[in-house]
Amino acid sequence: MPRLSTRQEQILGFTRTYRREHGYAPSVRDIQMGCSISSTSVVDYNLRILQREGYVRRSPDVSRGLEVVGDEAGTPLVTVPLLGYIAAGAPLPVPTDDREASETVTLSPEMSPRRTEGLFALRVRGLSMVDALIDDGDVVVLRSATEVSNGDMVAAWLKLEREATLKRFYLEGNQVRLQPASPHFEPIVTPAANVEVHGKVVCVIRHLE
Q1: Alpha-carbon span 19 to 24, nearest angstrom
Q2: Exposed, middle or buried, 83 (CB in 10 Å: 0-12/13-18/19+)?
Q3: Which residues lie closer than 8 Å to 206 by C-beta, 6 or more apart?
Q4: Which of 109, 119, 155, 195 is the most exposed place for a label (fewest CB within 10 A)?
Q5: How far is CA 54 from CA 32, 46, 51, 113, 122, in A?
Q6: Residue 128 catalytic?
């Protein structure tokens, strides 16, 4: 499914939380106030996109007739914290931006992995994983992990450099090769003791624009 904007993710998350807390859907005005949106027309515009992409259903003849697809069927959407950026290229320092840490992405049932514990998301910067169909601006969803297998795509922390990168992991003797998925980038080869794996990629939310 197409990647949603931050505003649409916010509306979706607010709607789901509101329904669970109140037992009924929020009104457009509730969403406007709860998400600090400038006008109800902006809310309505984003709800139309969410409806078009299959994330919500709206019943115009029913008061508060807004449903998040999946919630009512016992297969709730999964909300994952978006913790910042990960480099797909030269490693980048891990950001400490509180605004990014407060964002979420929502996975529809067909995108959600069977196990949903320990999931987090990072937005990709760089082009070193394009041959793995991960482009600049895409969002990768990962599961926290410290042990992975060769060939797994991981978020790797380089201790000495204090930087993180998204690459495929290969343990080769006492060294680790962090392999890009693009011929335009060189692998990172470093002592195994210098690498901490923070997560393994379980799905990708494509950036289409």
Answers
A1: 5
A2: buried
A3: 2, 3, 133, 135, 138
A4: 109
A5: 21, 12, 5, 19, 23
A6: yes
Instruction: List phi, psi (to 5°) of 105.
Output: -125, 150
Residue with the two structure tokens 């937005």: 123
Q: Which domains does the chain have, with CATH numbers?
A: 6-68 (1.10.10.10), 78-205 (2.10.109.10)
Residue ranges, the chain, pLDDT below 50: 73-74, 95-101, 209
Active-site hit among 5, 102, 128, 144: 128
**pTM of the predicted model over 0.85:** no
Q: What is the pLDDT of residue 79?
A: 79
Residue 47's contacts (CB-CB under 8 Å, 6 or more residues apart) are: 11, 28, 31, 56, 58, 66
Please tell me which residue in 5, 41, 63, 167 is annotated as part of the active site: 167
Whose CA is closest to 170, among 192, 199, 202, 185?
192
User: Which residue do the tokens 């000495």 mark?
Assistant: 160
